[in-house]
Amino acid sequence: WKKTIKVAVSGAAGQISNHLLFMLASGGVFGLDQPISLQLLGSERSREALEGVAMELEDSLYPLLREVKIGIDPHKVFKDADWALLIGAKPRGPGMERADLLDINGQIFQEQGKALNEVASEDVRVLVVGNPCNTNALIAMENAPRIPRKNFHALTRLDENRAKCQLALKAERFYTSVTNTCVWGNHSTTQVPDFVNAKIGGEPAEQVINDDKWFKEDFTPKVATRGGALIKKWGRSSAASTAVSVADAIKSLTTPTPEGDCFSTAVCTDGNPYGIAEGIIFSMPCRSKGDGSYEVIDDFIIDDWLRAKIKESEEELLKERACVGHLIPN
Ligand code: NDP
To answer: Which end of the chain has a smaller Cβ tally under 10 Å, C or N?
Structure first.
């Protein structure tokens, strides 16, 4: 047997976790030969619900699930974590300004960043899902100087999956034929689904679909506003597909990326090859050898359309960073 990995999850009593935890425990994410221990973070609000989640996990008799710990203190729950999946965040309420949300959630991620810094494994991989996820990840990273900056991610894999779905539907091809599809930037409506570098059946997507108006006026806004459209239909935000995309994001880091393909993940822009401002968490095309680390692919074509869109998302993230300056140590 491999050594048990310790996976800490916040917002563990929430909707996304309700799907994700069972995927993790079953071996569907880290592999069928990988024992796992789950360390679940909740709050006073969710204490009873969290006990219920732990009961359900235990009653499922997963052979790989070695331990389920629950708690409300991140300094205890994040102890020795190899992975930290930070899902819990206050949802945006009616009439709430983005700056208010940034501040309230920023405080949560400041505390959790400090806790990771003190008690997590020094090579912990951190994936932030709770919104606004890019800036929350930035705050956690800046409050955890002991942990390499490269180890912090914000989830944009759901956006990539949505983009691939739309390309496959339009081209009338199966999803698996769509590759090299990056979503750049912020996990917000300024995100940039990249149809310039995407491939369908190994051919450039723009040659296969050959409809510039569709790419710019239908595809791009449809992917960027998919989350809001789903809330209108369901009355709640995407949970199952988000959990699947978290699993995909982890698998992309723990298995080698096929030749000529990429995955999207929002990571620190320090030293990036595209001239994007440094010191923000920005989704870019990446590749991994499967050892948990990644490199940013440096040869994506950036045409005028992509350049202008990427700039808008970069400006939004710089504004977000300015709003949370008080949560970032000098
Ligand atoms: P839920 O509302 O089901 O759960 C969120 C959890 O957040 C709650 O269980 C709660 O747990 C916790 N939480 C932390 N602080 C607060 C607070 N101040 N007020 C209320 N709850 C709080 O949400 P989901 O699981 O559906 O979504 C979780 C996050 O993921 C959201 O921020 C959502 O916007 C984001 N998201 C991100 C996506 C992405 O692609 N990046 C896609 C979809 C969703 P506790 O009380 O235990 O702390």
So the answer is: C
Token pair, residue 253, equals: 């880091």
In the chain the first and final C-alpha atoms are separated, in Å, by 44
Q: Where are the beta strands (DSSP E) in the chain?
A: 5-10, 36-41, 65-71, 83-86, 125-128, 152-154, 178-179, 183-184, 192-193, 199-200, 203-204, 263-268, 281-287, 295-296
User: Which neighbouring-strand residues pair with 152?
Assistant: 126
Evaluate whether 156 touches 239 at the Cβ level (below 8 Å): no
Give, in degrees to the nearest 5, the angle at Cα 53 between 49 and 57: 170
Q: How many whole angstroms from 12 Cα to the centroid of ligand 1?
A: 9
CA 8 to chain centre: 15
Measured in Å, residue 230 CA sits from the centre of ligand 1 at 16
Q: CA-to-CA distance for 317 and 137, rounded, in angstroms?
A: 12
Which of 39, 53, 90 has most ligand 1 atoms within 8 Å of CB, for mutation? 90
Atom of ligand 1 nearest to the CA of 17: 25
**245: pLDDT strictly greater than 90:** yes
Q: Is the pLDDT of residue 205 over 80?
A: yes
